[in-house]
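Before a computer can learn anything about folding, someone has to put a protein's shape into writing. The three-dimensional part falls to structure tokens, numbers that each stand for a local backbone shape. The protein below has been through that process, and both of its lines are reproduced in full.
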Amino acid sequence: MTKRVRKRRKEHKYVKFTIIRSTVITIFICMLFVRGYVPFEKGGDNVFHVKLNGVDVGTVDDPAKAEKMLWEARYQIQSSREGLTFLEAELEYSGEEILWGYLDEETYVRTNMLSILQSAVQVPMQRGYTVKVKDYLINLANQGEVESLFQTAIDKYDDSGNFQVKLVRDPNREFSVFTVVVENLEEIVEEEVAEESFLEVGAMPYLSPAGKTFEEPKEKDFGDFEYGVHDMNLAENVEVISAYLPANQVKPLDEAVEHLVTEQEVPVEYTVVSGDTLSEIALKVNVPMDRIVEMNSDLLDSVNTRIHVGDKLIITVPEPELSVTRKETKYYEEIYDADTIYVENTSWYTSEQVVRQQPSAGFRKITVEENYVNDTVVERVILKQELIKESVPLIIERGTKVPPTYVKPISGGKISSKFGKRSAPKAGASSYHQGVDWATPTGTSVMASCGGTVSKAGWANGYGYCVFIDHEDGKQTRYGHLSKVLVKSGQKVKQGEKIALSGNTGVSTGPHLHFEIRVNGTAVDPLKYVTN
């Protein structure tokens, strides 16, 4: 091989090496500057694998970039929804140190984050108002709806449109707690006019000249009064709280009106007082008599059933959950009854009364101030009256002594014969039973049903061994078919005191106690008087 050939081969190898070296250097430089690859940094992590809520979303070279992309994804979700949106978002990073590696595009990472956040969105929250009336709670969307709710309640009783509801912050509570105020627009206008007049003319016209005495105010005539509603408010304590609420718990205004303002049937217990009749009660509670009878069928058979003082009647009346109070001045020309006059008699029982004077209605002109709860008058104050014809009061003399009570004279026992008509159980027995029989073993203790004086203790035809006791209220109790008598005639006994032992003496078909109650000598059904 010639020297020239060797030289050419050497030059060729050098050129080839130079080309290869240049290519390698070029590729390495491109890897450093092409997007998607990360250069080697000695001594620290330069690639971070990112997880959102435990799911891989991509690889980045800086955690701060992932935080920024998460913020952008959250903003995109929030801007597409109304109110406040809550969602779970927890980023995790796993870093490593590499010579070079592939990085995900930011768009790819952000898209993955957005998808995960969409599935993590919780119930959206919005600013709202929680209204509490007694035990009832409802959420409304804004302050205007809250004021409209209470304005609807007020408007039912305000024909003039003078009263306006206003929601104001409660100075004694937290910043977000409100109270409801009912303003009288007429009074506000009058106060403003008075203040302007005071500023224009000064204080002198309102001051009394030295030495001048005040004249006594003249009595008002009927035409001098200002008639109509002059005060109105809510009867219940109302609390309104502003807060962020779950959107699905905010209710429409008409639902709140239905629950709080619309009248609902509410059962009320009415206690019968002295002088009450069913017709008078019906007028008081504004419920028909037949409806009262229907609601109290266990106590009343018809509108003619006699009622007693202390009876408890259930009256169902329409009442809204949210009640309104108001004061109203009115003028009437009316027929009226004087208050009943009661004359107390300490020697009579409370069950006894006698009418001493029959009433007669009167006629009058009156101006009154009436206090209402909804449509019910709870107080009436007469401001002025002129009697055209004076009424005559009803006068009733009534007893004050509590009448004695009657208890079952034995413990246990089974009723074997009730009061009234029956088939005679044996020859000599009555077909009209004048008491009640309790079947019980011979020797059962017999107690006095009521305290009194023993009028008979011994044997009597038909009764066998028996005890008769006279009581203060004029009644008499009888105990028959006894096996042993433990008291004597003339002896005083107390209620529940042991007086005899039961038996099977006299006209009897088996061991039992025969018990009677007599009123003015006439036998009555004992079970109507025995309380236990």
Q: What stands out?
A: The CA atoms of residues 298 and 313 lie 10 Å apart. The longest strand covers residues 376-389.
